[in-house]
Structures are given as C-alpha cells and as structure tokens.
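Below: protein 1.
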Amino acid sequence: MSDTSTQCSQILRDLRRGKAITPLDALKNYGCFRLGARIYDLKQQGIPIKSSLETRRGKRFAVYWIEGKAA
C-alpha cells in the first residue's frame, strides 16, 4: 500500500469517527504534509467532506469533517 493510500485510509477512518482534521493534525497523526491533496483524493471517491477556513493566532487554515453519519 502506498503512503498516499495509507494516509487517505487513516484520514477517512478518523473523519468517519466524527473527528475534524486540520493540517497540523494530519502532520502529527499521519505524517501528511499535503492534507488538501488527500482530501481532494477522498472527494474524488465520492466522500462528502465539508470544510471551513479558520483563523487562530493570525494563521488561516482549513478544517475538514464529515457531517452526520458517514458511510
């Protein structure tokens, strides 16, 4: 299994568990430097991932999650 598919499966597992994921979470938990790319890959598979931009301490970043009960 490639690093990309492993990262996607780990990210999807946590999203389905109701967790919201930020780029810092992805780096710490999955060793993923390109969360946006992995989210894109998952969306291409039909996963309904939501996102919003947040600002903390003057830094903007995306937060990703799946609403409701995921498949």
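Below: protein 2.
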Amino acid sequence: MTVSLAGLPKGHEFAPKTLKLKPEWVAEYRAAVADENTPSSIVPPLALATLTLRSLLEQAALPRGAIHVSQELISFKAVKPGDAVVAKARIGSKGERAGWVLLAVELEVAEEAGDTVTSGRATITFPAVAEVVE
C-alpha cells in the first residue's frame, strides 16, 4: 500500500535520490513547456524541481483533492544535461484550518559533490479527510 502525504508528519524526510539528467529527458522537458529561453547547455531550474517532486511522489501519493498552491525556487548554480544531482525533500510545515490541510514540501537539489544548485518549497492543500489517489 502506498503511503499518503496526508499521513506524514511535519519534519518527515524523504529518502534522497540521485537523478541522472539525461540529455533526452531535458530536451523533452524543454519541448513540453515550450522553453525557448534557457540555453540548451543548461538544465532549466524548473526541470530540477519537476524531477525532485516526481521522486517524492514515488515515495508518497497525493491525497484525493490535492491542489498545488504555490512554488518557490532559488537557483544558485546551473547544471548541464548529462550531470547527476541528488534530490532531497522534507515536509517543512503542515497545518489544518476549516477542514483543509496546508502542507509545504521543502526541496533541495545538490551536485553529487554536495553544493546546492536549487532549493525551494512547494505548497499543496487537500481536504483534511482525504483518500490516496492511486
């Protein structure tokens, strides 16, 4: 059975995951979002966030009714297609009001050597009584 984000406490840390930034995937991402502004020699920062959140969702499912509320990103350094990065995520805050949960996931993407290249925070909301979407 898949664990739901709804059942995880504030402070929960997801298992870090090493991600290979395959040039083919980067090109497909760029085409899918019609990114004509980012030089092809670097990976768009939002692509890093996308991969990080995808690795998180491999570990915990979204609750039914989840809505993506906001996304914040800070980029410190560019990475190139073909590089490998380590994605980390943790539940930074979790609160409930009027029957809805507001949950923030903090993320960090670092080079294998350890230098942070991108960090950020994704916020979602979902009904306090939510089912797992499978």
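The longest strand covers residues 84-97.
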